[in-house]
Amino acid sequence: MRRNNFKPTKYSNICSLHFTTDSFKRECNNRVLKENAVPSLFAFSSLISKVKRRQAAKRHDMKTKKQSSRKIS
What we know:
Layout: E1 24-27, E2 30-33, H1 44-72
Antiparallel strand pairs: 1-2
């Protein structure tokens, strides 16, 4: 990870894309991380661009909603 001195807490989250397929087990039709799973897949450039696209889409949606609410009133 690109964070110095990162210490995860019980509230920390990490995307499943960072784990290999053998890091998961099936429990009641759900995919659950194994106790010894360690995130090992990091493609920073593609993840960053994916996040930026998602953020841009959210901004666009918010802008569109604001414009449509103005037209109604």
